[in-house]
Design a protein that fits this description.
- The longest helix has 29 residues.
- α5 runs antiparallel to α9.
- With about 325 residues, the chain is mainly α.
- The radius of gyration is 29 Å and the shape is elongated.
- About 75% of the residues lie in helices and about 0% in strands.
- The chain contains 10 helices and no strands.
- The protein has 2 domains: about 140 residues, Ferritin (Up-down Bundle), CATH 1.20.1260; about 160 residues, no CATH class.
Length: about 325
C-alpha cells in the first residue's frame, strides 16, 4: 500500500480520476435505490452522479494533455489514509439518513484530498483544476447534507408512513397485543391461586420474557422482507420481541407491591391503559374504526383475564 506522500503528480491525477469514477457509481446506486420511494431525493443523486462523471472526464483530459495516454491504475484502497466505506449502497431498502451521512462523508473526504493534492502540484494547470474541484466538492457536501432533511413530497411522505407502519408499527403492535393479552391468563391465575405477590411476579416475568423470545423468533422467521417490503427480519423480530416483553411487564411489575389487593388493582389499571394504547395504535396506523378497535381489544382482554381468574380460583 502506498503513502500519499509517495505519489507523483501523474499518480495523484490518476487516483483523483478513479475516486470520481467510484463516487459516480455509488451515487448512481443511491439514485436507483431511492427512485421508487423517494424520487425527488433520487433526482439529487442523479445530479451529483452527472457532476462526478464530469469531474472524471476533466481529470482524464488534463492527464492526457500533460502526461500522455497511459493512466496508472490506482484506487483508494491502494493508498493509506482513506476511510473505509461501508457498502450502504447495497442495502435494500435504502435509508435516507444513512445515505445522507455516507454522501456527506464522501464529499468531505474528496474535498480534503483535492486541497492537499493542490499543495503538492507543481503544474499550474493541475493545481488550478484541483482547487476548482475542491470548491465544487464543497458544494456537493452542502447538497448531500440537505438530502433526507429537506421537505419530502406528499407521495414520499405517504410511502414513508406506509413503510413505518409495515416495518415498525405492525410487528410492534403484534408484540404489544400478545404481551398485554396472552400473559393475563397465567399472571392472574397465579395471583388468585397463590395469593402471593412475589410468586405472581415470578410467573409474570417468566411469561413476559418467554413470550417476548417466542414472538421475536416467530416474527424474524416469518419472511425475509424482500418480497413483502416488511424490512430486515432481525429488526422486525427485535421490535416484536421487545414490545411483547414490555406488554407483559407492564402489568407484572405492580406485583412488586407486597399488598396483594393493591397490586391487583394497580395491575388492572395498567391493563386498561395497555388496551387503550393498543386500540389507539390500531385506529391510528391500521385504519381500524374506534368502535371496532376498542371492542376487539377489550373483548379479547376480558376473555383472557376471565380464563386466568377461573383457573386460578379452581
Amino acid at each position: 500500500m502506498r503513502s500519499f506522500e509517495s505519489l507523483s503528480e501523474p499518480e495523484i491525477l490518476a487516483l483523483a480520476s478513479a475516486l470520481e469514477e467510484e463516487d459516480a457509481r455509488i451515487y448512481d446506486n443511491f439514485a436507483s435505490g431511492l427512485e421508487k420511494d423517494y424520487p425527488e431525493q433520487a433526482a439529487k443523486f442523479v445530479e451529483m452522479r452527472d457532476q462526478e462523471e464530469g469531474h472524471h472526464r476533466r481529470l482524464l483530459e488534463l492527464f492526457h494533455a500533460r502526461f500522455g495516454e497511459h493512466v496508472p491504475h490506482l484506487r483508494r484502497e491502494d493508498v493509506r489514509g482513506f476511510l473505509k466505506r461501508p457498502p450502504v449502497w447495497l442495502e435494500r431498502p435504502l435509508r435516507l439518513k444513512a445515505v445522507r451521512k455516507q454522501a456527506a462523508m464522501m464529499e468531505a473526504e474528496t474535498q480534503r484530498f483535492y486541497e492537499v493534492s493542490a499543495t503538492r502540484a507543481t503544474d499550474p494547470g493541475v493545481r488550478r483544476l484541483l482547487l476548482d474541484l475542491a470548491l465544487e466538492e464543497q458544494g456537493h457536501y452542502q447538497l448531500a447534507e440537505t438530502i433526507g432533511r429537506s421537505a419530502l413530497s406528499h407521495e414520499e411522505l405517504k410511502r414513508e408512513r406506509q413503510r413505518f407502519a409495515l416495518q415498525v408499527v405492525q410487528p410492534g403492535l403484534a408484540g404489544l397485543m400478545d404481551g398485554s393479552i396472552s400473559t393475563l391468563a397465567p399472571l392472574f391465575a397465579a395471583a388468585f391461586a397463590t395469593n402471593d405477590p412475589w410468586k405472581t411476579l415470578l410467573v409474570g416475568l417468566a411469561a413476559s420474557v418467554g413470550a417476548g423470545i417466542s414472538m421475536g423468533f416467530a416474527e424474524a422467521l416469518s419472511d425475509d422482507g424482500l418480497l413483502t417490503g416488511r424490512g430486515h427480519p432481525f429488526a422486525r423480530g427485535l421490535v416484536c420481541g421487545m414490545m411483547t416483553t414490555a406488554g407483559g411487564l407492564g402489568h407484572t411489575l405492580p406485583f412488586l407491591i407486597p399488598h396483594m389487593r393493591t397490586a391487583i388493582i394497580v395491575a388492572l389499571s395498567v391493563v386498561a391503559v395497555e388496551l387503550g394504547v393498543i386500540a389507539w395504535v390500531r385506529h391510528r396506523y391500521m385504519d381500524t374504526p374506534w368502535s371496532s378497535a376498542v371492542l376487539q381489544v377489550v373483548l379479547g382482554g376480558l376473555l383472557v383475564f376471565g380464563v386466568g381468574v377461573l383457573i386460578g380460583r379452581s
